[in-house]
Amino acid sequence: MAIRELTLAHAGERDLSKLAEYQAIGGYKALAKARKMKPEAVVEQLLASNLRGRGGAGFPMGRKASFLAKGTGKPTYLCVNADESEPGTFKDREIMLLNPHRLIEGCLVTAHAIESQNVFIYLRGEYLDVFEVMRRALEDARKAGLMGDVTIVLHRGAGAYICGEESALLESLEGKRGQPRPRPPFPAVSGLYGSPTLINNVQTIATVPVIVEKGGEWYAKIGPEPSPGTVVFSLSGNVERPGNYELLLGSGLRELIYDLGGGIPDGRELKAIIPGGSSTTVMTPDQLDTDLDFNSVAEAGSQLGAAAVIVIDDRACMVQLALRSTQFYMHESCGKCTPCREGTRWMVQLLQKLEDGRAEQSELDLLLSVCDRVLGKCLCALGDFAAGPVVEYVRNFRDEFQRHIDEGGCPFGGESSLEGTFAPVDQHTHAPVAEVPA
Amino acid sequence: MSATELVTVTVDGREVHVPPGTGLVETALAAGVEIPVFCYEPRLGAAVGACRMCLCEIEGMPKLQAACTLTATNGMIVRTAQTSERAAEGQEATLEFILVNHPLDCPVCDKGGECPLQDLTFRWGPGNTRMTFPKRTFEKPIPISPAIALDRERCILCYRCTRFSESVAEDGQLVALNRGAESVIATFEDEPYLAPFSGNVIELCPVGALTSTQYRFEARPWEIQNVPTVCGLCPVGCNIQATTREGKVKRILSRNHPEVDEGWLCDKGRFAFTHLRARDRIADPLRRVRRRGFDVLSWDDALGEAAELLMQAQGRIVTALSGSETVEQAYALGRLMRAGLGAHTGVLPEETSPALDAFRLPLSAIRDAELEPVAERAPIVELWVKAARRQGAQVEQAGDALEGCRRLADKRNALGKSLRESERAILIWSGEEGAGGAHLAALAKELGFAGKPASGAFHLPCTPNGRGIADAWAAASDDEGPNPEPIGLLFVSGDEAAADPNVRALAERAERVIVNAMFQGLAVGWADLVLPGTSYLERDGTYVNLEGRLQRLRRAVIPPAPDELAWISKLAERFAVEVSPHASAVFAEVSERIYDGLPFGEVGEEAPLRTRSEAPAPQLPSEPAAEGKGLRLVRYRPLFSGPAVERVPELQFQRPAPEVELSPGDAGRRGIAPGETVTVTHNGTSLQLRARITKSLREGIVRIAAEHAGELGGTVEVAK
Amino acid sequence: MNLDAIAAIATEYPERQSAILPALRLAQEEHGGWLPPEAIREVADALDLAPAQVEAVASFYDMLHLAPVGKHMVEVCTNLSCALVGAQQVLQAFEEQLGVAPGETSEDGRFTLRAIECAGGCGRAVVVVVDERYREPVRPEDVPGIVEELKRGD
Ligand SMILES: Cc1cc2nc3c(=O)[nH]c(=O)nc-3n(C[C@H](O)[C@H](O)[C@H](O)COP(=O)(O)O)c2cc1C
Ligand code: SF4
Ligand code: FES
User: Do B151 and B270 lie in a common domain?
Assistant: First the structure.
């Protein structure tokens, strides 16, 4: 298996954050080409490329662009989702740090395609380094006269995972609490300030210049047909060489972990793999031969998600893992819809009890029932992100959950790699009212 | 709409035809199916889909859908919890999650018995609880204002209250803090929710999280009666429900009249009812004995005394009205004074003009207009104007009433020009000036509104029934008479008149005074005879609101003394005038004369607006006499003022501060900063007030609440 | 409070309210790392909003603090990728070195220690964020050096 770099091409050898360096490798040629094309023709290329969104859901980008409402008399907006906060993902940060002009060029080409003059990049608030790099790159692009009639506003978030959800992102950008909106209406019809809006992930947009440069059909032919192209995989957890690897979709999971990642350190055994960030469901070592593309991972019963592969070795207690993951979703639930707000909290309570060895048999069933009552019932996908994985942790590692009940405690006896993990749920300092202990 | 424009939707196997875009909850209702909801409330703007109570199965959509966020499209097939097991499971899940942290303290909850959460749990909820962990607990209840208590444990986070604050009242004061399971409803730094419409959140709350401090532990729903009536505290005439228990009013709820109030009430209308039990409420007739002393009289003696005083005055009687009398009461009084005693002089609380009836529209038309110059101050009207602005209407500040009339009538005025061109333009004026709206009517005519059914004009009177009593007083007799000099007897009808400095000035000139009032504080000290008054909640009859809509008042509770109609009728008998003690009979007589014989019974629970009439040609105001240099003072009656409000502890924090409002320009020129104490001078008298800088005020004008304006009038000078 | 700066930020957006997060960030910097009520009020005034609306927004986001914080903020990611490779040992090392528990501020007001959710550096775990700057990867044995460095810098 080979590394195939498109969005990160040359990023290893040269300092592409410098405009001249980026231009030296052919940067901004796609923009020049696109601006000579009719906007519709650019959208045609995107459709032909069959580029699927890299933010998690994998929706074809060209189709989304073609849904944008026309003739509304309102401006059209492009929002770039750079909120990257799914546990396990760190690819957008790397793309922006190493190749900021690629994203800017992608923004400008896409803006041309959808006839938008206003681009907002919603940047994860914690990414101060990225902010500085992007701000400088934008300034350079502006000075070099590359912007045309387009303005790109770099908008920093302030720490809320939910703002990566597209409608919450819009609310946050409008200066409100980042809570998802019901859909319909979809952003393509009524998005930012009630205007037609296209929202795409950083990597999706950063891929656009390549498509314009080499043609949609060329792009559609690399990688497996239903989901062509490359993806930057974020490899983390218990592997020898964690990091970002840009690969063709359809590359093998085993190759990523063992060949590129160097396998499991310290002679430990592989126990589980989370293929697409903590919201995707866990896979087991017998599924190592799964190809990493949207359809193959789905057939294996999980999701490619944001292509964030987390490797878990045999020291990990899966109840602790499930608990820590659920604590995250509880902490990040926006609080708008009932099942997500109450369900995640209840799940955490049940998992904690299981981990402590105080749970009764019926409470394992209750946990699954609570998950079931969250799944498919929330306003946005966060509830599913929380509950879906828990069901699969239990299904795949039922024995381990069972032992916590039977043995009245954690079978790892304090030796789990996750032992004692402290989650921020307990340390919210925002509450103006003291929660009185029961 | 014709049948071809309807779409067909199937709900639980039943087909219905509704206009496209109808909400799915309403569509289901049309099919006879109830979809339960908590957060859904169309009056609060677009649906938010937060509570997930309304989950339904829609054919062609894999996931359960929140019905409240969808609208009817042709061919849609909906299965609710009644026929879909998945939907039923979804609903049960939602209820279970809502109850997971709910305290279930129904036995001590004011909402118990009329609580949607109780009802839906009863019908769809789980019978047992699977939650074994400690529930979220909070300090409770905490006051969010003197009138409203918040119990965070009961809150189900439907965001109705915060959406009201943000998108209806636009006060932005009640918000959700924190995130996720830690979310709570709060005000900034626990400061009181100080806004004129705050009480609506009590009614919006589907559980007992937001409750009225006045109603706390006062009644159980099975021991109360709800009497449908109309608020009598301002000229809007919001439709209300008076909840009574054992003959006492316990709370006021809204009763949605979609053309008048859309189910909102101001805090005065909601909370001021406790003035009925004010400590200085007069229950028995009183006669002055020595200079300041009073004797309690029997009713017989009181009526004898009153007849005696009326007789002695030999027709030299002046009647001062409040504007809060019912049409019937004013008419009855008119019959007694005018037909019985030949005393035709009535001092009306304000000028009113029938000319406006040619430009009559329901208040709800304000929301749908496109262009609205406003010079207004009235509670619910403000909400309609806000709704219009949200819908994209152009709302312009017209400055002060008189000057605005002249300016807009000018053919060169740009706004005036737009008004002439618009099909949906509405003028909204208020204030004591302007010949009771005659000038405004003249402007409307000048702008060509007569031929445009969606354009109109509102002049907001100062008193709740100013228009009704003017008409009724006029209808009581066809004769006229000269103003008496000297005044033999001043008859003061109602507390507002009793509190009016002009009426007090008349009393100085009168030989004898009879006051009909509710409160001792207002009557004692200057009246020879005091007859107990009643409140709008204790009377039967009709009011005419600012639209010109005739509305029905119903007695919610029996007053502590006979009501006005009862004793006016008895008094009239002594002077050989026949006046019925029953509102229905009096109304029949009035109606014969001025309401085209409309029967009392047809005034209705949800009164319709009478059609527009031909208007007499009104007059545009002429140039006012130059009053010298300085700033023109506009005195106004603030919402939270008047004898009733003064007697309600929960409303004291809402009363206006002693302030003078200035435009930024006038303040700037005088070097006045916001909050500074300034001196306002007129004719040698001066007052110290705090300066408030108001962006919407035009230059050259200052505003002071009447209760803080003292003797000031005309033009004033303001200095640091 | 830098009203001009807020006004300048607001011009970047079609609607003023959009400037609320940048404005709060500025206000927080000016008020020693957190947002006392007067800071909320100032932002509200600058953007023509009610203070409650501004507080509602501020309380939603993790990076905006409504209670005082230390001069230095030390944040340790304890989400999955970091937890799998020893985040709790790193957090513990900071607890020992700084003498505070996660979520607390040292008595001298110099340090606030927090556990945070995934910081987006999973490939270089354990991620520690010191005063908004990422240190990655950090091992427990690196902690005394970091603390030493911070103390020396003061
Ligand atoms: C809870 C939640 C968090 C999300 N976070 C992100 C994120 O951090 N970055 C991202 O690009 N998409 C995120 N998404 C997906 C977005 O909603 C949206 O689908 C995506 O930005 C679309 O871009 P794409 O089509 O280019 O993938 C998230 C979705 C959910 C439900
Ligand atoms: S207080 Fe009542 S209205 Fe407000 S969110 Fe809670 S349940 Fe809803
Ligand atoms: S997190 Fe609240 S609805 Fe999705």
Answer: yes
| Complex ipTM | 0.94
Question: Least CB-CB distance to A310: which of C13, C81, C121?
Answer: C81
Kindly identify which residue of chain A lies nearest to residue B156, measuring between CA atoms. A338
Fill in the amino acid letter for B521. G
Nearest CA in chain B to C66: B178
Domains of chain A: 19-220 (3.40.50.11540), 230-313 (3.10.20.600), 318-435 (1.20.1440.230)
pTM: 0.94
CB contact burial A171-205 (16+ within 10 A = b; e otherwise): bbbbbbbbbbbbeeebbbbbbbbebbbbbbbbbbb
- Rounded distance, CA B72 to CA B14, Å? 14
Q: Are residues C111 and C145 in the same domain?
A: yes
Same domain (yes/no): C122, C99: yes
Ligand 1 centroid–CA A166 distance in Å is 6
Mean pLDDT of chain A: 95
Residues B24 and B63: beta-carbon distance below 8 Å? no
Contact C52 B187 (CB under 8 A): yes
Instruction: Give Cα separations from B434 to A323, B235, B374, B379, B543 (angstroms).
Output: 71, 17, 14, 20, 22
A71 touches chain C (CB under 8 A): no
* pLDDT, position A433: 41
- What is the C36 CA–ligand 3 centroid distance (Å)? 28
What part of A 30-49 touches C (C-beta under 8 Å)? Answer: none
**Ligand 3 pocket, mutate which of A181, A279, A333 (most atoms under 8 A from CB):** A333
Beta bridge partners, B692, equal B661
Q: Cβ–Cβ contacts within 10 Å for residue B479, how many?
A: 9
Compute how many other C-beta atoms are within 10 angstroms of the C-beta atom of residue B21: 9
Residue among B321, B347, B234, B292 at smallest CA distance from B515? B321
Provide the residue range defining the domain that includes B81.
3-98
Please report which confidence band the pLDDT of residue B529 belongs to, taking 50, 70 and 90 as the band edges: very high
Element (H, E) at B541: strand B541-544
User: In this complex, which of A92, A161, A310 lies closest to C80 when CB atoms are compared?
Assistant: A310
Q: Is B509 exposed, middle or buried (0-12, 13-18, 19+ CB in 10 A)?
A: exposed
Verify that B320 and B365 share a domain, yes or no: no
Chains meeting B at 3+ CB pairs closer than 8 A? A, C
Is residue C112, in this structure, part of any structural domain at all?
yes
Strands C133-135 and B701-705: unpaired
For A171, name the nearest residue in chain C, comparing CA atoms only: C18
pLDDT tens digit string along A309-335?
999 999 999 999 999 999 999 999 999
- Which of the listed residues A179, A332, A342 should we mutate to test ligand 3's pocket, taking the one with most ligand atoms within 8 A of CB? A179
* Helices and strands (H and E) in chain B: how many: 23, 32
- For residue B461, is the peptide bond before it cis, meaning its omega torsion is within 30 degrees of 0? no
Q: How large a percentage of chain B has pLDDT more than 90?
A: 73
Residue B657 has what DSSP assignment? P
3-state SS, B211-277, equals EECCCCCCCCHHHCEEEEEECCCCCCCCEEEEEEECCEEEEEEECCCCCCCCCCCCHHHHHHHHHHH
Residue B196 belongs to a domain with what CATH number?
3.30.70.20
Evaluate the CA torsion angle A52, A57, A59, A65 in order and state its sign.
negative
- In three-state form (DSSP H/G/I as H, E/B as E, the rest C), the secondary structure along chain C is CCHHHHHHHHCCCCCHHHHHHHHHHHHHHHCCCCCCHHHHHHHHHHHCCCHHHHHHHHCCCCCCCCCCCCCEEEEEECCHHHHHCCHHHHHHHHHHHHCCCCCEECCCCCEEEEEECCCCCHHHCCCEEECCEEECCCCHHHHHHHHHHHHHHC
C80, C131: one domain:
yes
Question: What is the pLDDT, as a whole number, of residue B682?
Answer: 86
